[in-house]
């Protein structure tokens, strides 16, 4: 199975644009450090980047980059976790938000996806979608008049309508939680309803 991901904005073909999903953040005096894996492109010390969450976006400058506790001038797409130092003026970055090349990330209110049920899942259910570093709430609409899915049922082309637009990527895998129980898994196939 390929781990290649399409560009973050869902439409651009420029994979040189930098993007990193934030997995944690902490703050030594005078700055904030965000950690994560570079999903695409490269980031350099001194580069202007944009912090994007579901409710805010703000430009800031990369003050330092550390990879395996060694200071670097640049970090590129890899499996290693990277620490990026940002000025304190940026709002506290939240786990799951993105750090990216300015103006390359969009928020999405809807997506189409495939899902597999592990428990009964009704059409129009409002559920939490659990991604590795963030959670979003969505209404799940099953295709072609299906009223529900039974355990082990699989469906392609389900529509997910988010309560609040979020930074999403095609290909991301998530679990579905309903009333405190895991009821299935899914994969984002197509992003729609882009907000700037």
Roughly how many Å is the radius of gyration? 18 Å
CATH class of the largest domain: Mainly Beta
Mean pLDDT: 86
Taking pLDDT < 50 over at least 5 consecutive residues as the criterion, the unreliable ranges are 1-15
Overall shape = elongated
Helix run count: 0
Keywords: GTP-binding, Nucleotide-binding
InterPro entries: Transl_B-barrel_sf (IPR009000), Transl_elong_EF1A/Init_IF2_C (IPR009001)
Organism: Pseudomonas eucalypticola
Protein name: Translation elongation factor EFTu/EF1A C-terminal domain-containing protein
Q: How is this structure best described in words?
A:
- The protein is mainly beta.
- The protein has 2 domains: 82 residues, Elongation Factor Tu (Ef-tu), domain 3, CATH 2.40.30.10; 89 residues, Beta Barrel (Elongation Factor Tu (Ef-tu), domain 3), CATH 2.40.30.10.
- Helix content is 0%, strand content 57%.
- Strands 5-4-10-1-2-9-6-7 form an 8-stranded antiparallel sheet, with no helix packed on it. It has a 6-stranded antiparallel β-barrel with strand order 11-16-14-13-17-18.
- β13 and β14 form a beta hairpin.
- The two termini are 32 Å apart.
- The relative contact order is 0.20.
- The N terminus is likely disordered.
């Amino acid at each position: 199975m390929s781990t290649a991901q399409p560009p973050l904005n869902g439409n651009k073909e420029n994979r040189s644009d930098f993007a990193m999903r934030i997995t944690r953040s902490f703050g030594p005096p005078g700055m904030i450090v965000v950690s994560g894996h570079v999903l695409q492109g490269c980031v350099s010390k001194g580069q202007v980047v944009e912090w994007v969450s579901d409710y805010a976006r703000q430009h800031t400058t990369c003050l330092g980059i550390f990879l395996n506790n060694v200071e670097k001038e640049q970090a590129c797409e890899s499996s290693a976790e990277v620490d990026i130092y940002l000025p304190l003026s940026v709002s506290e970055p939240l786990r799951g938000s993105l750090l990216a090349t300015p103006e390359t990330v969009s928020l999405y209110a809807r997506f189409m996806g495939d899902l597999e049920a592990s428990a009964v899942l009704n059409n129009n259910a409002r559920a939490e979608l659990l991604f590795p570093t963030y959670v979003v709430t969505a209404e799940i609409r099953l295709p072609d008049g299906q009223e529900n899915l039974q355990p082990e049922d699989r469906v392609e082309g389900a529509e997910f309508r988010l309560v609040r637009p979020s930074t999403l990527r095609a290909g991301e895998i998530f679990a579905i939680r309903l009333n405190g129980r895991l009821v299935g898994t899914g994969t984002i196939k197509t992003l729609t309803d882009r907000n700037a």
